[in-house]
Automatic annotation (TrEMBL):
SUPFAM superfamilies (alphabetical): Thiolase-like
Coiled-coil residue windows: none
UniProt pathway: Lipid metabolism
Native species: Thalassotalea castellviae
Residue stretches making up the Beta-ketoacyl-[acyl-carrier-protein] synthase III N-terminal domain: 105-181
Domain named Beta-ketoacyl-[acyl-carrier-protein] synthase III C-terminal: residues: 233-321
Top-level taxonomic group: Bacteria
Entries under CDD domains matching the protein: KAS_III (cd00830)
Name the record gives this protein: Ketoacyl-ACP synthase III
């Protein structure tokens, strides 16, 4: 049987930090209010388009795998904030990398986009369509954020992560997954003013308002991720005791705590980095996974559970068996262009551009 082994991993976080104290300069909030309700302390604001974040993350993933751009046969780019809808953003990553042998596709399932992309690439490797793939979860959501809405403005940030997958006879990579959607509730989390539905209307592209019913989203997030975990564990005849580490989507610390309780998990078995980056939508789960590897929380041959939830309302849960190698083969010197603005200055620039 063919598996899609994870051989490389990388991330790209924009250098500009937006702290809770920064948010308090233009919103009626403070650090204690945000931290107690979300677990978030700061988030990143990108000064470049999402394809550039993805490109840097991919270069790092390739270096970690000891591979070149020419080795890549497929690029699957998960996001909701693509530079363009046509041509697709994955083709821009191909161009930036010089990965001329790679087929390219975009996936949009909101916050689960990185995980749905992982399923897509894994399936194509297992079926023999391709032998290698780059999987991307990336987001530059700050330009379309409604910075006047405290309910959402404190939650989101920008970032990217990538995995390099390769066909293998060893039992590695995604062993089982479950995907789903609460489509009947899709309107409780929606970005209005963004998409062809609003074409030729008075609203300017990027001048978006957010529908965000927090309590309802909380309930659906816990239910969706728990359901996904239970289904995926059952596929392997696993219990939560067979999992070495849980790396959940980092949407809200209270959601993570509720999920851990529902699955009878010890908090020490759950990886959390929400305090550093907030919710990066499509990038969140993959960035957390990459950081778990970097921080040696992922061990050789360990089983990792990754539940996620996003707009739509999509949900997913993956069980990954990691391979023997947990250290990168090489490193990449590719970095983002220098940024001479703070996170707050970048946000103020976005706000002023919409006036």
């Amino acid at each position: 049987m063919t598996y899609a082994a994870i051989k490389g991993w990388g991330k790209c976080l924009p250098p500009a930090v937006l702290s809770n104290d920064d948010l308090a300069t233009f919103l009626e909030t403070n650090d204690e209010w945000i931290t107690s309700r979300t677990g978030m302390k700061e988030r990143r604001i990108s000064h470049v388009q999402v394809s550039e974040l993805a490109y840097v993350a991919c270069e790092k993933a390739l270096a970690a795998a000891g591979k070149e751009a020419g080795d890549v046969e497929l690029i699957v780019f998960g996001s909701t904030t693509f530079d363009e809808l046509c041509p697709n953003a994955a083709s821009n990553v191909q161009r930036l990398l010089g990965a001329k042998n790679a087929a390219c596709m975009d996936v949009n399932t909101a916050c689960t986009s990185g995980m749905y992309s992982l399923t897509t690439a894994t399936a194509m490797i297992k079926s023999g369509v391709v032998k290698s793939a780059l999987v991307i979860g990336a987001e530059a959501i700050s330009p379309i954020m409604d910075w006047s809405n405290r309910d959402v403005a404190v939650l989101f940030g920008d970032g990217a992560a990538a995995l390099y997958l390769e066909a293998s006879d060893e039992e590695e990579g995604v062993l089982a997954e479950s995907l789903g959607c609460f489509g009947e509730s899709r309107d409780i989390l929606a970005v209005e003013g963004w998409g062809m539905k609003y074409a030729n209307k008075e609203r300017v592209l990027g001048d978006a308002t957010w529908a965000f019913l927090g309590q309802e989203i909380f309930k659906k997030a816990v239910a969706g991720m728990a359901q996904g975990c239970e289904k995926t564990l059952k596929k392997l005849n696993f219990t939560s005791q067979d999992i070495d580490l849980v790396v959940p989507h980092q949407a809200n610390l209270r959601i993570i705590d509720s999920l851990a309780k529902k699955l009878s998990l010890d908090k020490s078995d759950v990886f959390i980095n929400i305090h550093r980056y907030g919710n990066m939508s499509a990038a969140t789960a993959l960035v957390a996974f990459v950081e778990a590897i970097e921080e040696k929380r992922v061990k050789a041959n360990s089983h990792i559970l990754l539940p996620a939830f996003g707009g739509g309302l999509t949900w997913s849960a993956h069980i990954i068996k990691f391979g023997q190698r947990i250290t990168p083969i090489g490193s990449s010197q590719i970095e983002l262009p220098a940024c001479n603005q703070s996170g707050l200055e970048l946000v103020e620039q976005i706000i002023n551009s919409k006036k």
